[in-house]
Amino acid sequence: MACLLKTKTNNSPGIVSFTTQEELLIRHNKRNLDLFKELKNSYITCLHFNWHNYDYYPDNLFDIHFAGKKDLLVKNNQKITLFSLDACNFCPSFFEYSTIDKYWDILYIARSVFFKGIPDFFKSIRKLYDKGKIYRVLFLCPVPPDKNKEYKKLRIEFERLFNLEERSFFNFLPLFEDYPFFFDLETLSQFYKKSKVFVHTAPTERRCRVAAYAFASGLPVIGGENVGSILDEYLQIEPIFYKVINNDFSSRIEDALERYSPIFKNNQSMNLFKNTISKNKLKKMFEDYFYTNGFKLEGRWFCDKLNLRLGSHFGLGNGPNLYSKSIEGFLLDLMNMQLMNRVNKSLVEYEIISKSLNGLGKTDKLNFSYIFKSNLQKYYCLILSLLKKIILKLRIKNLN
Predict the structure, then answer these.
(1) Where are the alpha helices (DSSP H) in 111-264?
(2) Within a 10 A sphere around the Cβ of 256, how many other Cβ atoms?
(3) Nearest to 305 by CA among 144, 96, 8, 93
(4) Could you read off the pLDDT of 345-379 as tens digits, one per residue?
(5) Helix, strand, or coil here: 141?
(6) What are phi and psi of 200, to 5 degrees?
(7) How many other CB atoms sit within 10 Å of the CB of residue 156?
């Protein structure tokens, strides 16, 4: 969501954050870009990265970047102000260490999308079962409304790999309703509390929220370097994090469960993701930034539910992740002195959306020139890929 973090006053600029998805609708929509540049006269603008970027060419459009220290590779000479906090650092208090008896050995939570590496998860559990390690597994799988075909393929693969008796231990639970939040977070936290370890098989995804919930709850986490990257480097150690190399998840899961201790906890790794601690860190970062730039730090803060608000969107996404209002409308609201005075006194942040008709039910559009260039690049890549395949086949044919 284009997320208001602090209101502006006569003596102090406000603070507002946008996601990288919304950045496109600002950069490549002339009306939005003009409004955004006007907004910068009275707000500190932040950019929250919902995905890592190893080919990043920043400019001066955004003042502050929310991302991990190794999640951005800057490819020009532009210096950026990086706050190494993002949505995953603001886990609510429900996700906490618990000594209650564990029911599941292994917990995995992933949407039925390709970049989660779900087939690798199935294969790793199959290897363990073949060794006689019949662990009790819970896999919660929210299914996006447009991904039913992907889910059906996963279900076929699951039933091919595991017989009915094994499926009584391996609980694959697809969640179709109220995507993406079938469970409220307090309910979701109960599954963490009743599990011994958390597995995440996504091969490239970084700063994953469900893994952050596991770290906040004190669960050992098994995953690739990308999953462990949300920890400080000195905390990427066993039994906090079991790093997977060469996709060998099964042995790492076995190691974690054999070493599992219900009394082990590491407050340092857990505290990285606690909302109460991260809120204070965030405010201190802005305090230093304001002092360095000669600004006063006044105004009303909105730091609740940042684990969801920082990554949600206007006009993009599904269900509770979507606010049915255009970015243009939100920008106009932020510059509406009468409305923002009410927010400064009593309104909660999300009421900005409902108290103004600006942009309600509307979506922003990308400039035609940007759409044309993007499609041109896409088709170029497709044609190039096809040519490479044809050349490879011809080479093989000649060798034969």
Answers:
(1) 118-130, 148-161, 164-167, 185-193, 209-217, 225-228, 249-258
(2) 23
(3) 93
(4) 776 666 666 677 777 777 888 888 777 777 777 77
(5) strand
(6) -140, 115
(7) 10
